[in-house]
Amino acid sequence: MHVHPRRSVPELGTAWAGAALLAGVFLPWPAWSAEAANPVPLDLTRHWVGYASVAIFFLAYALAMLEESTLLRKSKPMLFAASLIWGLIASTYVSQGMGEESGRVFRASLEGYAELFLFILVSMTYLNAMEQRGVFDNLRIWLLSKGFGYRKLFWITGIQSFLLSSVCNNLTTALLMGAVVMAMARKNPRFVSVACVNIVVATNAGGSFSPFGDITTLLVWQKGTVPFTHFFDLFIPSVVNFLVPATIMHFWVPKQYPASAGRPLPLQHGAMGIIILFICTIITAVGFENFLELPPAAGMLAGLTYLSFYFYYLFKVRAGHKSEHSGENAVLAEEKLEIPYDIEVSKQRFDVFHNVARLEWDTLLYFYGVMVSVGGLSFIGYLALASDFLYTDLNPIYANILVGIVSAFIDNGTIMYAVLTMNPPISEGQWLLVTLTAGVGGSLLAIGSAAGVGLMGQTKGAYSFVTHLKWTPVIALGYAASIGVHLLLNQDLF
């Protein structure tokens, strides 16, 4: 079957443009568009391979979204879809004598994913190490011990969610704050529902102004589209996005006081060192990117060695303490210094690879499936169609607002990766706008972000899609207000 080189993009009708937008809201940062010496890619947008690839992606994505009901891990359909899509593309290119071109583009997609994977791997390893040393549990118990009222707890959990999500992933932050809410108000579903909505909004808003806070900002930073420090221009718009709905929801929070809890325990040995090394790792990643022009992932991997050597030090210290104590004093020394009696157990707990093994591998492989699949759809030509519709037919401001609304239905990382793949010729202010909208747009619905999905599972019905939907108009006010504040405060960037 003959296919035509992609020398021009055909004009689209409104209906096909909308379909192209949804089909094209998928991803990577392909390197094939730069060099004129490379062969012109084939236009497969109206070829059966293109139609089949879109159908495969949508079917796999639907199965991934139904993970809770089907009990089929979301990575499985997405990995299979990525393989099928690229198999179809490669077979078509090989038949046209252009197999080398499809292989080169696939490797470019793989390289983009590898950088993201390594970055997240190190970040999640540090978070697992902090969890192992009781950092998050200690924070939760501290909050429970203060005897705060529901309204004060509503604001404390919201503000802490906003701040924590700027350095931790939004799912970890939401589950931590959700655990506090459930522990203090399990018998008050009215408070649980409104507090969880507040946590979701705060978590997504807090991650939108920090390069480390969310997958959207991380993608934009790693691509080099926005410099590291410029993300903080979104701080005030992000605060507004959180405060507007939180202020309104405050009046629906009960005025009662929940039962208090015991006193928090001291941090376990090594916890503070891990926190300090995590900060040093972030500084290293920023330094590698800003001063050495190396990808942030390279700096994060350097930071992983900090943790590895620190764990080795902790293990040797504990092994030394173990050899110094014997007989009846061994148990007492173990309690005082928290020294595991079994050295093999100690070695496992202070082995960085033990924490790596505890990563959320299903999520990491799911991102591979999504990013590589969308890389295929981009190579086929659908991202060019979507880009024409969004950033040529529409005003970029309206296009970026629409991107945020779509992110309430489709994973925001997927959305942002699609926009980066389109690489429209827009100003830095517009890039910051789409970073903001894609980050906070997921708050409009419970299924729009990992924070919302995670809390729905954790609260066992106390917080649900329907309870979140009741607050969507209020959240939309915050969404609109944050956009307005960004356009006002950062107008010099447009």
Describe this structure in words.
This is Na+/H+ antiporter NhaD. It is found in: Membrane. The chain crosses the membrane at residues 49-66, 78-96, 108-127, 162-184, 232-253, 265-288, 294-315, 365-385, 397-419, 431-451, 471-489. Belongs to the NhaD Na(+)/H(+) (TC 2.A.62) antiporter family. Keywords: Antiport, Ion transport, Membrane, Sodium, Sodium transport, Transmembrane, Transmembrane helix, Transport. Helix 4 runs parallel beside helix 17 (361-380), helix 8 packs antiparallel against helix 9 and helix 10 (215-223) packs parallel to helix 20 (412-422). The protein is mostly helical and 494 residues long. The chain is globular, with a radius of gyration of 24 Å. Residues 4-37 and 326-348 have low confidence and may be disordered. It has 2 domains: 48-106, no CATH class; 112-321 and 349-370 and 378-493, no CATH class. It has 24 helices and 2 strands. The chain has helices spanning 14-24, 48-65, 67-70, 75-95, 99-132, 135-144, 150-164, 170-185, 189-206, 215-223, 235-250, 271-291, 296-324, 329-337, 343-349, 352-357, 361-380, 382-393, 396-406, 412-422, 428-440, 450-459, 465-469, 472-489, and strands spanning 4-5, 42-43. Helices cover 70% and strands 1% of the residues. The longest helix is centred in the N-terminal third of the chain and has 34 residues, at 99-132. The relative contact order is 0.15.
